Amino acid sequence: MEIRLRNETWLSPWEATPPGVTAMPMSWSDRQTLGVFTQMLRTLRKQARQGTSLPFAITVEGRLAGQLTVGNLVRGAFNSAYVGYWVDAHVAGRGVMPTALSLAVDHCFGPVGLHRVEANIRPENAASRRVVEKLGFRQEGLHERYLAIDGAYRDHIGYAVTVEDVPEGMVNRWRSGPRR
Questions:
Q1: What's the whole-number average pLDDT of the chain?
Q2: Is the overall model pTM greater than 0.85, yes or no?
Q3: In angstroms, rounded to a whole number, what is the distance separating the alpha carbons of residues 77 and 16?
């Protein structure tokens, strides 16, 4: 909770609108309480048990530094999921998020057996777009009014990578240097 409260300016413009929040959004501090965190953790654990989500904590030097969630795992012909993530501003720009994302993608394409991983990012979120672009996710299009952010549906740019795009693995690709 301390990290999230300290990172309000860094994270709040990109934060999904909580379910049930409409015209009068909750304050940032109201969304960072033990009760909200406990409910989010309960939901993530349930989704993980059901096989529809893979929640990960990101640590740096043994301390929590962010979160990455592989969500909406769909099997069958689609065999795909999306990723969402955040990182503490104090460690941003040090390769923490691209490393975490590359590890998650390799896990998805390896043991989990997915074919495709997507990331949908607001056009204004240059830092997040840079993460996926460094790893070679391809930009696939604009999704208008895609996700509720800060009380309104906002446009997102869709990025994706498939298992065929990274035969060497995403971690190996990241180690060999940024794509762009």
A1: 89
A2: yes
A3: 28
